[in-house]
Amino acid sequence: MPNAKTVQNSYINREISWLQFNARVLQEAEDEEVPLIDRLRFLGIFSNNLDEFFKVRYATVKRIVEAGKGGKSELGGIKAAELLEEITQIVINQQSHSLEVLSNIKKSLEKEHIFLVTENQLDKNQQLFIKDYFLRNVSPALVTIILSDVVKLPNLKDSAAYLAVKMVLKSGEKQYALVEISKSMDRFVVLPEKNGKSYIIMVDDLLRFCLDDIFNIFDYTEATAHMIKITRDGELDLDSDLSKSFMEKISESVKHRQVGEPVRFVYDKTIDPETLNYLMTKMGIDSHDSIIPGGRYHNRRDYMSFPSLGRADLLYKKIEALPVKGLSLQESIFKSIENKDYLLHTPYHTFSYVVKFLREAALDPKVQTIKITIYRLAQISHVASSLINAAKNGKKVTVSIEIQARFDEQANIEYAEQMKNEGVNLIFGVQGLKVHSKMCVIEREENNKTKRYGFISTGNFNESTAKIYTDYTLFTADQKILKDVNKVFSFFEVNYRIYRYKHIITSPHYTKKALFKLIDQEISNVKAGKPAYIRLKMNSISSFKMVDKLYEASRAGVKIQMIVRGICCLIPGIKGMSENIEVISIVDKFLEHTRLYIFCNNNDPKIYISSADWMTRNIENRVEVSCPIYDESIKNELIDTFNICWSDNVKARILNNSQKNDYKRNNKPKVRSQFALYDYYQKKLEN
């Protein structure tokens, strides 16, 4: 639970709110209704989230402290130094709780005849298997660092786990070493099945078992090994060298991230103090770093890839992505959307429509140009191959690719190089702005005129994440909307010109003003006795300006319902400030990623899907697009999907001042929104 300092003034601190979101992820690992192996994977997501939090958010606050600044105005009323302490304490408590959760999951696995064994629990046959596995699969990839007082410690890899080994030599001296647990190693080694029971050993324990093989050149009497992990500042510091291309600068900066300043040090709490002090001194860990005692194993993000062991009964049942009524993968999408807009809602609908649209554009002789924004691509991307195919067929293909997409920079650089070599025209965003909008427009020659077709989305054009992220994509041939979208691409090319848009809302120039105008209309309507409400669904809200505007609407009497997955700096339900605002968060099987804005507009709803959360970065420092919905059937569909999510009383949590993550439970029939949405779309097909 947050300290009172985190809710000073009118806001909950962003970092504390984020940690409470991650606590909701941990709740999924704790929930006995969640399939057992998926519970382990949620534990991995919890750990992975925490790694990124320290690389980015903790590192940012640490920079404020080191710059000698207080940071109260930026941090919602708490001093940066105090915030670092509070974050560390919350994380220590969460880590402790996560170890309890892991212990309970292991007990449940044992009831299913799945055993996680340590190096001390192996029988003779398993020991022989381990020795052979080590020699064949682990030893060739092993990186071992021998530590000494005279040799400088090499930079340890960011977020890699290491076994810190202490050997007591026969001479009485102590020799220290680090064994890197490389990402190329499988973290979980499946041992031969025995009497219908499955056995798994962590590669960490396999290495402990094989210490004699690793350090046989040392004459020691005893050896101990404990896990440590260091997390580094993940901010990209770009070189100012004008002779280097932007891509070169990003590539070099990504490499530099591996040697950034340490911000978190996690260690096995059973390590002896002498070894711990030696390591911390050697690594230059100081008081501004988050020093967290943990359990025997770190890098629990690896549980995201825990082996399924052929046990489909211990995993969520895979859903079969549904078709969109009226759209066919066997027929022309252009013809289908020529007279009617269609809404794709992944993962309930198949992402294949996006790829089909691009493949059709690549082959159609009448298509002249394709323009698309790319933020994160799948490892094997059919989107990228379709664009390359189009370029080979003589289409003018323009791709705005964001190579500063955090932690996906290297993958995007590689795809950018590949597309550039195939003749695709690349635009690397706009200086000082990340391009986060999700849109595509193609121009087709029809009857000696140019007609546009396209799509605008809330999510990345990524086949992998489309299976687990909920996102809306609007397919349209509305020439008014697509004319505006085309102007955004013109802005990419000539970004000293600021264009005017009649339909879409764009950041950084217009989003705040446009949203304020929509909110003001609701305030005017409620004061005039007319119907007024605001319904919002987004990932995060941290912009104090947007929070204050919603407070103003609440004080005027506008009823506001918000579904916020992650950070929520707004405090709902406070008399005289936000008593008309309710906020819930849904964390479940899929990652809630849709952004939807609904404004009552005197019972003639104005509805937008958007790439933008209500965070300062999205409103002021990124290129974002919010697209109006004009088709009445799609408007009704979006209202239905919001209402289904709002009625969730299984996986919805109530967000309020306490930040307790209490479930929204009531006596109404159970509604688990992600399952209910799938049923909703199935019924639409049947009808």
From TrEMBL:
Location of the Polyphosphate kinase N-terminal domain: 11-116
UniProt-listed Pfam families: PP_kinase, PP_kinase_C, PP_kinase_C_1, PP_kinase_N
Domain of life from the UniProt record: Bacteria
Description of post-translational modifications: An intermediate of this reaction is the autophosphorylated ppk in which a phosphate is covalently linked to a histidine residue through a N-P bond.
Polyphosphate kinase C-terminal domain: residues covered: 332-496, 505-674
Residues annotated as binding Mg(2+): 376, 406
Record keyword Ligase present: no
EC number per UniProt: 2.7.4.1
Reactions listed under catalytic activity: [phosphate](n) + ATP = [phosphate](n+1) + ADP
Single Gene Ontology BP annotation: polyphosphate biosynthetic process
Polyphosphate kinase middle domain ranges (all copies): 126-306
Keywords: ATP-binding, Kinase, Magnesium, Metal-binding, Nucleotide-binding, Phosphoprotein, Transferase
GO MF assignments: ATP binding; metal ion binding; polyphosphate kinase activity
Active site positions: 436 (phosphohistidine intermediate)
Family the entry assigns: Belongs to the polyphosphate kinase 1 (PPK1) family.
Function: Catalyzes the reversible transfer of the terminal phosphate of ATP to form a long-chain polyphosphate (polyP).
Entry protein name: Polyphosphate kinase
Organism expressing this protein natively: Mangrovimonas cancribranchiae
